[in-house]
Amino acid sequence: MNEKIVLIGDSITFGFETKELLPEFNIVNKGIYGDNTTGVLVRLENDVIKENPDKVFVLIGTNDFALERSDEELINNISEILDELSERLKDAKIYLTPLLPTLNIDNRPNDRIRGVNLKLRLLTEKYKINYFDLYNKLVNVNGELNVRYTIDGLHLSEAAYKIWADFLKEELQK
User: pLDDT for 33-68, tens place per residue?
Assistant: First the structure.
């Protein structure tokens, strides 16, 4: 497949070894360790728009919690990101990935993540973009990140990246 796909996000995206797990796709991974919604806004032009991708997957926001940003600030920043992408990449298919669950991470509580994700779902309707629901692939019955899918309660394990790769492949082959 020769479609260009850009993934933008933080360390969770950075850790996704797309060349290894999805070698048949032209995926550019623009995950940066420690990034947040403000950082993505700053680098949107160089890291996404100049790449002129066919598809863009956005997963950002968990580090905004650690920076003590309000849900409103986080949603506003993601809204700005989607605004810019929709405006500048008219032919690209845009996907918003909800924040992923955590496992016992105090400054990233799962009830707050679920609340933000409800608002993110509404943004996908507003911008008429796709909701890439990786959250439901990784959450356990208690509403937390499944212990098999994490190395530290926040970052993903190889098993989680394999699930992400399979889910992404399924989406890209539609």
Answer: 999 999 999 999 999 999 999 999 999 999 999 999
The predicted-structure confidence for 133-170, as pLDDT tens digits, reads as follows: 999 999 999 999 999 999 999 999 999 999 999 999 99
Which token pair is 165? Answer: 């790769």
| Integer Cα distance of 127 and 75 in angstroms | 13
The shares of helix, strand and coil residues in the chain, as percent rounded to the nearest 5, are 50, 15, 35
How many angstroms separate the CA atoms of 36 and 139, rounded? 22
DSSP reduced 3-state for 30: strand
Nearest to 67 by CA among 41, 40, 30, 34: 34
Task: Look at the pTM and tell me if it is higher than 0.90.
Answer: yes
Give 145's DSSP letter. B
- Check: CB of residue 71 under 8 Å from CB of residue 116: yes
Domains along the chain? 4-172 (3.40.50.1110)
Cα-based torsion angle of the residue sequence 145, 148, 149, 151 in order, rounded to the nearest 10 degrees: 100
- Rounded to a whole number of angstroms, the CA Rg of the chain reads 15
How far apart CA 161 and CA 38 sit, in angstroms, is 25
